[in-house]
Amino acid sequence: MQTEWSVRAITRATLPVLLVLTVVEIGSGLVLGSFEATLLTYPSLLTLVPVTIGTAGNLGSVLAARLSTAFHLGTLSFDPGDDQLAGNAVATIALALTIFPVVGAGAWLLSLALGNARLPLLTVVGVALASGAALAVVAIAVTLVATYAAYRFELDPDDVVIPVVTNACDVLGVVVLFAVVQVLV
Amino acid sequence: MSVREVAAQAYREALPALSASVVGGLFAGVVLGGMRAELRAVPGLLVLVPALLATRGNVYGSLGARLSTGLHQGLVEPAFEFDDRVAAAVAAALGNGILASLFASVVAFLVLELLAASVAPLSTLLAIALVAGLLSGIALTVAVVSVVFVGFRRGYNPDTLVGPLVTTTGDVFGISFLLLAVRLVLALGGM
Fold it and tell me: Quick check: B36 contacting A, CB < 8 Å?
């Protein structure tokens, strides 16, 4: 189904989903608001917020896009031993374990440069790495469930799975960051 | 392909785009980290941040995808001239982005009131969402249209450019214009 190129048609096709996603994102904002005091005390943690949310959503959307393509090509089966499934899941975890320590160190260095690094380097890297590892697992679970649901309901995974996964990972990114900060800081 | 080969290929293909968005995300984080005074001055603003950033990504990601499909189908010419279709797509993106930002302010305000949490007046949140949505929308429109058109003319597949471009610039422009909007509204509102 192709949307006509008019303001009205585009709005009708996109605005309802956009408003639903906005409500979901307010949910993640409320989680952020619940530990606002901690975030305002430690600027390194506040610096981690957008990058953690964004990277979690990206990990999920990359995985979703790849599974969706494999699905269209007919090379994907929902079998735990499936090579495509297992390989992409392993890559997601490897990507998270590579990127999140760099994210943590980057956030700490930037805070140091701005003269407000109040947490030790290891704590910030630890928070980033623990959040990243947990988020990789969450992203895999959410993507598999969403791709499988699209397949069962005969929806095009390209239309449904990517926005659902990206926004779900955004929200869960904040929840995971909150949980990790409670434990480590 | 074995699991190992699939994993290695997926890893190699995804790493550059993810790294680019990490740089954008960290920059956005630094701006957010430097916004502590504004976050304290406008209670409830932090609750809006994920919704506003996600709106930029969702709306302008969809604009990029639409333009890219239009180019592939030959419905849109990659020229910087007035075109009805491109104008409609841009107007819809700007309008929907601003509507969603205003809607986010209303939802955040109502929920925080309901929870009896401290929250800035609704008019302040609406003004911030409007100014931030408009300014970041203009900046993102320019970025998306130019990268997609120029990329297409140089022979790149715009589909692969849109994702990393929007996740990176969406965060950077989203937060920077949010900060600008908060300062403007606080200065004009005399808060």
Answer: yes
